[in-house]
User: Fold this.
Amino acid sequence: DGVVVLDPSSVSAGMYVVRAVDTTGLCEAVDTAVVVLQDSIDLTAQVSITPLCNSLAVVFENSSGYPAIWDFGDGTKSALPLVEHVYPTPGLYSVTLNSDELCVKPFVTVIEVRFDSFSVIAPDLTVCGYSADLQATTSLPGTVVWYDIEGNLVDPNGVEEDTYIAVATDLSGQCTATDTVQVRTIQVEVTAEVIGKDTLCRNDTTTLLATVKGNASKYAYSWTPSATLIGANTPMPLAVPNGPQKYTVTVVADDLCVDTASVEVYFAEFVCRDPYIFVPKAFTPNGDGNNDYFRVRGADITEIYFIVYTRWGEEVYRTEDPNHTGWDGTFRGKPATPDAYGWYLRVRCGNGQWFENKGSVTLLR
Assistant:
């Protein structure tokens, strides 16, 4: 009366009465049962599986507190909550974690075991200038973070001369590798100047100078055009130009970094005429070493015809040598008489112009 017969295979939480009758129908017994339902327990959040870098070993950890059995999928098992298992070969393995505790769901996953050799290569750098960009290459896809030797995070773009450390992590986040980089920035700045005369006449010489500022261990010099230089591969060459000239020095620091500078040498204006072609008014051939010869002076004479004669037209000296020493004041092996002597001159200059002139010179004793 008021009793409901239930299917015992599917009941909700509550208290139930069970009535049993033997097969004769003469005996019966009664008991009560309390049914409590609880949610199943998922261990996923308390399970970690960590492949070790560059190894076939994997670390398995069950931090749930429920005792359970690891099945590593290669025929071996372990009841330890924390265990490092080494697989025989790379491959895919089905891993399970089973607990005998009530309502604990089995944990099931598939892992890939592989022997990855993860590394990073960051080459030392020697560059020209005041900064460099750090570079690194990883053997497998990954990320690289840079630090200085004090452990401070640095931007790899535009770093100064120093020591830096590349820390690389593969995409799984399990493998890391490091490499150290030495950065050296070579600095070279050159200036050029004329330390002798900067305005020359024909056949004059002057000295050039290259001054270098920098931190290199060695410097190589090269001046151009080299044809009119003595010591074109030195910092201080001698210049023998044949006209206005621009000289450029190239300096190579430590066989790597280059800088250049230029300087100009000027020529005095030369016209093939007096006073650039100069003939003295007098001379004193007395052997005192001062004004003893009567000669034509000019910085750019290439051809000459020069004669000296007495007031009666008798020739006492003649030359066609542009580098002649001059008339020494003798005639026929004897000292000439002090007097006024006439002269005639015709010269050709280096610019191709001709100049002709005549006059007189006084011989004094």
